[in-house]
Design a protein that fits this description.
- The protein is α+β, with helices and mostly antiparallel strands.
- Helices cover 55% and strands 17% of the residues.
- It contains 27 helices and 21 strands.
- β17 and β18 form a beta hairpin.
- α13 crosses α14.
- The longest helix is centred in the N-terminal third of the chain and has 48 residues, at 2-49.
Length: 850
Amino acid sequence: MIFVLRMAMRELRASWRRLLFFFVCVAIGVGAIVALRSIVQNVRNGLTREARSLIAADVLVQTNRPWNPNTRERLESQLAELPIVDRTESIETATMVRPQDGAAVARMVELRAVQDKFPFYGQIVLDGGRTFSHDLLRGHGVLVRPELLTQLDVKEGEAVVIGGQPFTIRGVIRQEPGRRAGAFSLGSRVMVDYGDLIGTGLLSFGSRGSYQVLLRVREPDVERVARDLRRNLRDDFVNVRSFRSTEDQIGEDLQRAENYLSLVGFVIVVLGGIGVWSVTRVFVRQKIRSVAILKCVGATTRQVLATYVLQVLLLGLSGSALGVLLAGLGLSAIPKSVTDAFGGLPYGLTASAVVQGMGVGLMVSLLFALVPLLEVRHVKPLLLIRGLAPAAVTRWSWRAIDWTSIITAVAVSVALVALASWQAASLRVGLVVSIGFAGVALVLHLAGMGLVRAVRPLASASWFPLRHAVNGLRRPGNQTRVILLAVGLGSFFVLGIRALESNLLSQFSFQLKRGGADMFLIDIQEDQVPGMRTFLGQRAGSYALIPVLRARVTAVKGRDINLDTYQDVRGRGSLAREYTITYRDHLEANERLLQGNFWNGQPALSADAAELEVSIEKSIHERFRINIGDRMRFDILGRSIQARVTSVREVNWEDSRNGGFMFVFRPGQLEHAPHWYIGALRAPEDQLERARFQRDLVAGFPNVSAIDVREVFATIQRVLDNVTLAISIVGGVALASGALILIGAVAMTKFQRVYEAAILRTLGASTRLLAAMLALEYSALGLLAGIIGAAGALALSWAVCRFVFEIDWHPAPLVLTAGAVLTALLVGTIGVVASADVLRKKPLATLRAE
């Protein structure tokens, strides 16, 4: 072992420049795993500590409709029997707010009304370090977030109008319980007294809101209370959850995120591993003379192999340590604005992430280096005399098969699948990722072979640089396929997310480009319809008022599916959710009839008809196998109604100017039920006039909320930008890994190019001519990698748009073409720059050495 250790250290000292690339490849992959896992673990630990604060109680009972008297009676009866320590109530709803002075501005906010015991857990932190007291809310007081002060140009002590009544701003909220940090919202948070909200009339019929009962329970009774309430209220459309279930849900979500992000990091490590394999393979070929000499002086194959394996382990360990350092530096560089968006959680390295990253880095280094290192077994001392090339096998035989290498390769493959499964916490996912990676590698390998064959006729071209560039691609040890794999995967990551972003942004801006509705009004009451028509007719470019109700499917009796109870419906997932429904006597422009007969031009149903007729959207038909003629039972406003399916429609969800509904009923009965309206309109284009429009709308119809699609689109675009940035960084790291593999490949094959360049320079070739040869060779590799990456990105964006987001797909040719060209330029530039010393080196020194 002393000999092995001494030889390993001597080899490291002698070859550290060549092996530096090996070191960096491992460091980047390990850094990615450690950083990604540490971020998610920090978030999960912070949120787990604040689990009670996330719901501000031990148990939360919640419904999205006003309390039904029967349901409320059952709830009160059960709460009287359960070990409840304390209770309070809260209501959340969206509404519009404007300054009292009549300034031409109004904003949608998320309004929360609380009673005096709120919150049980967590603290409401006010600006200036003031202590929260419910007295601040009594008598039409209001607490607001700081951004609302800027949006409305008001300050503390002034009044804002909510539901037609003035509320005085008595404090600015900096932090509040009961709300996840970084959660998506339609507006700023505003907090008022529970009784004051009831008095505004905002909670009129049809208003959307979340009605909550918050319970404080002794620790041992939490799960029992939540379980009993959930069991007894599940048929009343009431949701019950405890802080523990919230913690578990968050933990599961974040664990899943951690595993998948770590899987991305593992893919980056594998890219580094490919570089390790490439470096090791060329390194072993360069060391044939050294290995032969060592065997001549008595070193055994086992000792020589142990020397290089130890060298690989030392490099893997050092590279992993550098990766941990890079991860730590990266986390410390996260801007404060980003940490504040997640509740100000501190980000730092976690022990679990460091251990996993180091383990993966070491394992990948060893696994990818092991197969090429086995070649030293075939180096014989006699090779010093015969010319330093292992003898070729001229005839196939069972004895000629290197079973050791085959068994090792199989074991390495199994180990890589196990590592991928470990990172994803799923054997199935690990297998899928490994098979997918192998498939992509095979495609790129075949593409490399195809490139070599395709350019073979150009080897006789008249232009000298082109002829020798083609010969360079075909040169043994050129590592064309390795470079294609690494760079192709990197460009696939980057171009795929850019193409997907392009499709999503074009989808969200569809309405604005086509001149459709850019503002939606909700909670318009029946008695407000005449006045609203007059107002919109004078102020809006175009508008539509659509009658709506809310309903839940409670049973289905049909040809292919029978769901007798609401519990059966709940077992079918999203079929049990609450739907917004409408009634009308015609198809809209964004709808197309697929099956059955719609009631266009037919008279309305009579008031005493035994059952209603309903038209369902295509996705309901396809996902839940509900067909023409099936009977469905709905709960509409607490009343059970039966309807027969008479048609199936396809809705173009892109064109939402006339709305999109899963269920459309035949007129005749629902118009006699209490309902409300939503409005879709084209608001004024001018920003000032648009603000006045919203102010006058709030003044005339205080209960109506306006959702400005332009603002929502801006919010969505910011979210998309952040997600795109994050994924692009991952793709950029993958592309950087590809660039590093390219640099390493150039550096490791430099010994072959130096002599060739010396001969060409002696024969009269200029530096410019040699640079042109290298640029053509590497640009061809880069262009092919870019084309393959762009093709993969095209397929990825199509699949995600078609099967995940279910939106129209656009190929984004400019993005993909530019990406392929830029990849070619990048690879060509890196290839020439990395070969700079080959171009500069004088031929005389090289020829003398030979």
